[in-house]
Amino acid sequence: MAFKYKIFLMVLMLNLNILFAGQIRVAMAANVSYVSKALVTTFHTLYPEITVQVILGSSGKLTAQIKHGAPFDLFMSADMKYPQRLYDEGLAVEKPMVYAKGRLVFFSLRKRDFSRGISFLKDNNINTIAIANPQIAPYGRATKEALIHAKLYKKLQKKFVYAESVSQSVAYAISVADIGIIATAAMYAPQMKPYKNTSHFAEVDTALYSPIEQGIVILKNAKAKQEAKVFYDFMLSKEAKEILKKYGYEVK
């Protein structure tokens, strides 16, 4: 009896491996790039037969690619608007779910006094401010909203250096701009380790912008692809949430 049970388990595991074997393509918003390796590594530990290919970009550009037939299986956006739009247009299998909430921080290579809050951006020694493009990047829209609420947007508009994504705004803040308004998650990137003290960055007051709810959807391309559903469930799991929390995201 025990032998037959072992045979049953072996056949079951073999069938599960066949079921979950394959590759999935996950389009991820640029802010997720900082945590993507940790997420994929943990997922691969749990499901070694599933290979995850990550495609990074701004949420707006990834949405455009999906609409033009890009062969992605899942989309992890930096907001809920883009995945909801894909669902409304019949390009996603189910309504998007929030997998995390992002936050904004000020970042500078130079040490700064952030005690005055967002008003410090008016200082004469700040000539360039790197922000994600509000037209295509949700973190850019949140940045614009914060600046409008602080009545600074029009005053500072000439200082803006626009990046295609929030991760590119980090690159600009390091290379060409005096200040960057970036994702909190970016501060957990290895290259940011020398700047992880409060003289180089500070959180933007969350009362100035709407919550950055980040959504995930399974795309029409993966409707019959079990591997995509496995990754989707993983992103809403306790394991994934613990990883996201470590990288500065808010999760429920």
Describe this structure in words.
- The protein has helices spanning 2-20, 33-46, 59-67, 81-88, 138-149, 153-156, 166-175, 226-235, 238-246; strands at residues 22-29, 50-57, 74-76, 97-102, 104-107, 129-132, 160-163, 179-183, 201-203, 212-218.
- The protein is of the alpha/beta class and 252 residues long.
- It folds into two domains: 2-101 and 212-246, D-Maltodextrin-Binding Protein, domain 2, CATH 3.40.190; 102-208, 3-Layer(aba) Sandwich (D-Maltodextrin-Binding Protein, domain 2).
- Strands 2-1-3-10-4 form a five-stranded mixed β-sheet, with helices on both faces. Strands 7-6-8-5-9 form a five-stranded mixed β-sheet.
- Strand 1 (22-29), helix 2 and strand 2 form a beta-alpha-beta unit.
- Helix 2 packs antiparallel against helix 9 (238-246).
- The model is unreliable at 5-20 (pLDDT under 50).
